[in-house]
Amino acid sequence: MIYLELFWTFFKIGISTFGGGYAMLPLIQEEVARHGWMQNAELINFIAVSESTPGPFAINISTFVGAQTGGLFGAFCATFGVVLPSFVIILIVAKCFLRFKNSKIVAGCMSGLKPAVIGLIATAVLSVGQTVFFPNGLQMQGLLTPAFMVSVGIFVVMTVLLFKKVHPILILCLSAVVGIAAGYILHLPLS
User: Fold this and answer.
1) How far apart are CA 22 and CA 118, in angstroms?
2) Same domain, yes or no, for 65 and 87?
3) What is the DSSP-derived secondary structure letter of residue 24?
């Protein structure tokens, strides 16, 4: 039963989300919490792991949730569920694209989807940020924690590097090194 539930849940997420893995994040968080498959903090930890591993974010996170919930076959069911809608839709789109590429309806649909995707990504950023930095609600002391300050510092430096056209892979590697170093320094025991 859990395998069918994993497949169906991730199929619904896959078919109802436009804009990629980040746009899926609010739906994944809601469904995982609703089913009680794992705690939000555990999911947030894997989001960080999923970001630092190769491959599409949606596949990584669905595979993880499936594996945690139903083992190897659970991972297969969740991953297949999240991938199947996109696979079928892209086959249909590829077949029909030449016929509809200049359609005003298609152009209008795309214009309407872009702001919705940006809103879903922003919701995911706020939700993850709240869980990581403000687990007990928005309090001023959360802004003064070393973890928050290091995160803001990394964000600012990486944004500057992005605008200076530094290759994204170099930015990711540099972010990982700085984050690991900061995490190590911040968690050293005080003697």
Assistant:
1) 9
2) yes
3) H
The domain in which residue 132 lies consists of: 2-136
pLDDT of residue 8: 92
**Same domain, yes or no: 48 and 128:** yes
What is the structure's pLDDT at 135? 72
Q: Is the pLDDT assigned to residue 80 strictly greater than 90?
A: yes
According to DSSP, residue 101 is labeled T
- Mean of per-residue pLDDT scores for the chain: 79
CA atoms of 168 and 146, how far apart (whole Å): 26
pTM of structure: 0.56
Task: Return d(Cα 6, Cα 35) in angstroms, integer.
Answer: 10
Q: How confident is the model at residue 55 (pLDDT cuts 50, 70, 90)?
A: confident
Structural contact between residues 121 and 22, judged by C-beta atoms closer than 8 angstroms: yes
Please enumerate in sequence order all residues whose Cβ is within 8 A of that of 51, keeping only pairs 6 or more positions apart, or say none.
Answer: 57
Q: Which residue has the tokens 């109802």?
A: 16
Is residue 74 within 8 A of residue 2, CB to CB? The reply is: yes
- Are 131 and 191 found together in one domain? no
Backbone phi and psi for residue 80, each to the nearest 5 degrees, phi listed first: -60, -40
